[in-house]
Amino acid sequence: MFEYGVPEGDHIELPEDLDLEMQFPLAVGTVGDFASEVVTKSIGDALKAQTPRDEVIFSAQVLQAFDDSLLNKDISFNLRLLAAAGFYLGDVPGNAAVQLSRLSQLESPEHDTLAIAVKAAMDRPWEQTNKALESSRAKDILDVLRQHFRNGLSGGQKANDAIRSLREWAYRHASAHDLLMADLLGAISATRIANSAWTLLPRYSSLPPEKWESYLSRSMSIKEMWPSQRMLGEAGLYGGSSGVVQMPTSAGKSRATELIIRSAFLSARTNLVLVIAPFRALCQEIANDLEKAFKDDGYDVNQPSDALQPDVAFDFSNLSDFLDLEFGAFYLEAEPKPQVIILTPEKLLYILRQEPGIVQKAGLVVYDEGHQFDTGTRGVTYELLLTSIKRLLHESAQSVLISAVIQNAASVAAWLLSDESKVVSDKSLQARRLIAFASLPKGKDGQLQFNVASDNDQKFFVPRVIVPEKMPRLRKERKDRFFPTEESGSIALYLGLRLLKNGGVAIFTGRKSSAAKIVREAVEDTFLRGVSFEPPSANSDPTEIRRFIYLFERNFGANAYLTKAAALGIFAHHGNTPQGVRLAIEHAMRQRLIRLIVCTSTLAQGVNLPIRYLLVTSAMQGRESIKVRDFHNLMGRAGRAGMYGEGTVIFTDPRLYDERFAKTHRWNDTVNLINPDSAEPTGSTLLSLFDPLRNDIGTITLSSPNSAEIASHIVNNWEALFKWIERVPNDLPKSNFSVASLREQLKSKKKIIEAVESFLMTYRSDVQPEIFVENSRALVTETLAYSLATGEQQVLLTDIFESVARRIEIFVPDTAVQQRFGRTLLGIDQALVIESWVTTNAKTLEDAASADHLLEVIWPLLVLLSSEKRLIDTVPAGAIQVLATGWLAGDSFAALLQRLDTLGAYYPYGTNQRKFDLDVVVDLCEQTFGFEFALLLAAVKESFIALSAEQVGEVFRGYADLLQKRLKYGLPNQSCIAYFEAGFSERVIAQHFVEEITQGAIQNSFDARNMIRENPERFEAILQDYPSYFSDVFKTITAT
């Protein structure tokens, strides 16, 4: 109740027969018994019994809860110390770290030398001097610890001797308190040495300690291995074994990945590591982390751009560093610098289809967030990528797939590694999470109901958490308004404002528009009227807020609701948030510089965004509920280990709980969402080809034609099927089928077929057509879909692959053209349209004199092939082309919106018309121009170069590659692109650098980084006005 700000007069009175002070003697005794047992075992004495570890953790939670209750502040130091020790010995180091952080807020007792020593043993003992300790025996133990963690030389018998000496003294002469502290000091010290990286890494990696000495001697190296990290070691992953890893959020995944890579390099098993992550933001985060980790090792960490082209800085068509070099009759093996390349599946698939040698030379491939096989079209791309890698990877190479939420790890391991036993699973949690539901009982203020979705946990409630307040009226208003309303978004904002003083808060919404609504209403209603709450900026870093305001003004304009929200300390984080802004927000949340974000499922995409509270407004994403596994990935952000010992997830729609008996299906769906055992197994989007078509509300499926027949028609009779679907609503008038919904479902299935077409064309060699068909039937057996399918589905999949192969032979009989089409990542139909258009317009394309001119030339083709309706139905007709021109010129989003407003542009929205706003502008620029147009342009380039003379083709390549990146990033020239790709992935900053500093052209990210290293003061001065994330990037660059 203190946590939720309930006035003390409204606190629920404790039962008279409940004395909390009587609860903790047993807790203290349990922690002490376990510590004594650890010491007994470490010094080699006989152990009679063993206290269960779960009881130790529970005892630590009791001690923590008693401290949180504020019933006796005089013993806070001992309570926090004992809780930290209990969590640490219970193998929950994340919670122990949180308690140590809270302990540092208190004054240490001057004469309790053993208690001070216990704290020192848990709190970075390698940095302690131990000079002030009165106990020589305690000092001896801490000296051993310090030396062990600094150089790995101490430990073992020397540590045991020191621990034994302290114990013998304590059991003869010490008070009860000192005896407890002595056992804790001995147990913690023995455990620290047993779990230390100096002790474990040489054994896990089968490398001598000398190989690890340079790394482990550094202050920033890993000092102690957490449970999941040790589990990977026991499974042999630091020694080169492959595995599918199920590692919960906050378990130390980033460090574990670093150690797997470091072990591979130190053992000389490989010089090339590929890390594949499904989202650009996650790639950026991994690259930043690994660059910092390896900056003193001489390992290169590279993140190619997302653009589908061989990057200047990463020319994968020339792999001389990794491939054998031929000199006459001799072959020389190059000895390259160890290199880590981090990239998205789409980028690697493109590279593979240009130059498969990169995978053949990789000795380690890491798949982060590796459960993404059933996430729509991207899932197909991911699955076919891994199918390709399996074919190309050397048999001695190591493959590691990591996911926090993969339910059927054995099935995935059987497919990927041909061994279902290669699974490393750790379900232990490093942070506790509570689940609560908002409730608005009649005649009372709002409450939070805890643990009501579980029969195993003690249910309780917190009263008067939601107390509506009357807000001042605006001019001409006659009706009173209250905050919050009964809407889940309003309640979420209210709770967020109330709780953010305790830690980071994320408000989750199912849709981007819902997130924007909450942020907009906070600016234009809640704080405009005036409420009793301070804005989140009052609990944020003022310098960081100032910097965000500056960035937002330059991006969105001073009067934009996003800018005003930033001034209040409220930030939106969703798919339409520009890349640089998202990265800056994530960094600021990690560093606790800001406190409140409103987000969509982008928060569940593996990004390390620690929060204390997750406020869930709705579990629906459009018409569908969020997947159970995605929700648990989302929940994993609450209560981040080492930062918050506990996370709380609050469902803010009061109807869920209050109407749980009247609307049982909603309640049951939510309970199911919370239960991790209900998580869906990782599937395959390929198999969704055989899912039936559903009506608009998902309650009725189309039985005729059946799903297999529809899949076949998509391959062989698409246009007729697309036309036929118009009849369904008339044939089934009361079944809630709409043409629009059915066509969207068909389009999704069509994209799956297009991915298969592209995949098969890639593996088309100069064999006879029937052999190609047979090869296609064999290829399907290598997919995850086939391994997960039933016998009937396996037959259907095989038939689909055969049908696709035969269609390829009919429409693209030339094998060279097939392979070229395969490199475009497009299906046959779009590739043929582009080929025909390029052939017809070859002269116009050849005459293109610049990247801007090239966009003008290909604009009609882009409009023809794009799935974005607003390209066609926006009024006036040329408005979106004007927007694209401004995007390429580097205009801010505010200026881009102003271009459309000047034209009076609008687009159809249902039966009405709608003007453009910032969110739509960002979506068009980043998704349509930056992704879809860039993909189509890559195919245009492939066709034109193939049909042109070499010199003409190379000139065109230069314009096309530049245009592709300018479309991707919204930047005016190559110099800006170079800074963007150097790590400053924010359009405003990249252009600011060029305007203020760069005189000549900067060709690539390496040149940009060198320019920064040569002029650090000038760049640093510019970055003082921007969010601290970019200064962090600057520090990383200048440190290497």
What is the topological layout?
Elements: H1 24-42, H2 53-68, H3 76-89, H4 93-103, H5 113-122, H6 136-151, H7 157-173, H8 176-195, H9 197-205, H10 209-216, H11 227-234, E1 243-246, H12 253-266, E2 272-276, H13 280-293, E3 300-302, E4 325-327, E5 330-332, E6 339-343, H14 345-354, H15 357-360, E7 364-367, H16 377-392, E8 398-403, H17 409-416, E9 423-425, E10 432-439, E11 446-450, E12 460-466, E13 469-471, E14 481-483, H18 488-499, E15 505-508, H19 512-529, H20 542-556, H21 561-568, E16 570-573, H22 579-590, E17 596-599, E18 613-616, E19 620-621, E20 624-625, H23 628-635, E21 646-651, H24 654-658, H25 664-674, H26 707-716, H27 718-724, H28 728-731, H29 739-762, H30 769-780, H31 784-788, H32 791-811, H33 815-822, H34 828-840, H35 842-846, H36 851-865, H37 870-873, H38 879-888, H39 893-903, E22 906-909, E23 912-915, H40 918-947, H41 950-969, H42 974-981, H43 987-996, H44 1005-1014, H45 1016-1023, H46 1028-1038
Parallel strand pairs: 1-8, 1-9, 2-6, 2-7, 3-6, 7-8, 10-21, 15-17, 15-18, 16-17, 18-21
Antiparallel strand pairs: 4-5, 10-11, 11-12, 13-14, 19-20, 22-23
Helix pairs in contact: 1-2, 1-3, 1-8, 2-3, 3-4, 3-5, 5-6, 5-8, 6-7, 6-8, 7-8, 9-10, 14-16, 16-29, 19-21, 20-21, 26-27, 26-32, 29-32, 29-33, 30-32, 34-40, 36-41, 38-39, 40-41, 42-43, 42-44, 45-46
